[in-house]
Amino acid sequence: MYHRVGNSISPIMANYTNYRSLITIAALAAIVTSLYFLLQPGQKEAILTQPKTNQTIVITKGGTYSGNWASYDSEIPAVDIQTSEPVIIENSIVRGAGYLIKSWGYACNLTVRNTEGFGLPPTPWKEYTKPRYFVTADVFKNVVVENCYLENTAGINVSVEYLGNGSENETIKILYNKVKNIDGRIYDSVVTVNFVGLNFRNPIRHAEIAWNEVINEPDNSIVEDNINIYNTRGTPDSPIRIHNNYIQGAYPLPATATDYSGGGIISDSPKTDSTKSTAYLEIYRNQLVGLGNYCIGVASGNNIKVYDNTAIVAGVFENGKRYPFWTSGIWVKDLYKMKSTYNVEVQNNTLAVVGHNGGWRNEFLDSLKVKDQRSLNHFIKGEVTKSLEKEEYRAWQQKLRQKAIRPGPAKG
After folding, report:
1. What is the mean pLDDT of residues 310-322?
2. pLDDT at 350
3. What is the pLDDT of residues 177-219, one digit of tens each?
């Protein structure tokens, strides 16, 4: 059953009566968000003091919801889910200066699909920071985000504890989304955010992050690791699968800064032993383009397979200037000296990565026993150029056509 709340409307009505106006509102919100960060402090304050009308919803009962929700206040979620009953949000537009869709403390069973999310200019926060997460959930049974569009949001954050039953119906699925500019800026500061960040207790089965297109633009985004699996474990019979994603761009802010600690896809487990560190993870058939710092990294973790990925990094901006920060391909380390990094396979990856400041190649860092697997990977010969990066995007589009997959909300 569909729910109508306030000015919320049914999917059919949204598609045929208000679709054009909703898209116009969303487009204006995206423009305002982009322009906001270019303004001087006095101009920003003028925007923040203009009257805004929040159109938020608190969901306390399971069901399927569709609507157009917005919060211009970083302290107020646009959508706040306060039930453990299954909730579906679909065919909607959600905008927020803070959390867009939040579920904390309710062991949520949440599906978000065919929905657009836009970050609005952030406002002052209290007690703790509130990045513009498209979805933020802590204790949970099931989180599914599929066929959505995210722009200027802080991505998807799932943390604390998994309470599901281990079935395919109670897991994490992040599928078929289209993403522009993951952005960790909050009011007067920046926080660490990811396209997908997982950090929770209890092993999970059937978890999957796949067929997402993520494009971050220099100076319009600030992402740490695009995908960060942090102290999170799959199972021996059902590893967490990260596959067939296209990830372009990872930069500091401003993009001319020399220090940057983010990058592509990482397994990370500081201060944990091998029984609690990230484990049972497969990273395969992803396409990683133009990333700063690294493309795929294992800082800590075990029973991890990295295969059939492509990483192309020319290390230059569109204007031809070189990245001033570090660049690298794949590396595996016991970074925290906890003896929790072992049984890591790195095979059949295709790499063309220019090292810091150009003039040398830096595809494969010799670390642990992974250096023995160097011969099992392919290194593209010749000059690594911006054109080669663009060819990889065309290859991604061709793969989508062959599989009849279209990331983002369904049209019509």
Report:
1. 97
2. 98
3. 999 999 999 999 999 999 999 999 999 999 999 999 999 999 9
CB neighbours of residue 27 within 10 Å: 12
Report the distance separating Cα 332 and Cα 266, nearest Å.
10
Q: How far apart are CA 24 and CA 226, in angstroms?
A: 29
- For residue 206, is it left (φ>0), alpha (ψ between -120 and 50) or beta? left
Distance CA 92, CA 25 (A): 12
Alpha-carbon distance values, 143 to 153, 208, 242, 268, 347 (Å): 18, 11, 16, 21, 31
Residues recorded for the chain = 412
Give residue-wise pLDDT tens across range 246-274: 999 999 999 999 999 999 999 999 989 99
Q: Rounded distance, CA 375 to CA 382, Å? A: 18
Report how far residue 362's alpha carbon sits from residue 291's, in angstroms, rounded to the nearest whole number: 13
Contacts of 137 (CB under 8 A, 6+ apart): 102, 103, 104, 108, 110, 143, 157, 158, 159
In angstroms, the CA 97 to CA 153 distance is 9
**Mean pLDDT (the chain, rounded):** 89
- Both tokens of 181, joined, read 């500019």
336: amino acid identity, one letter: Y
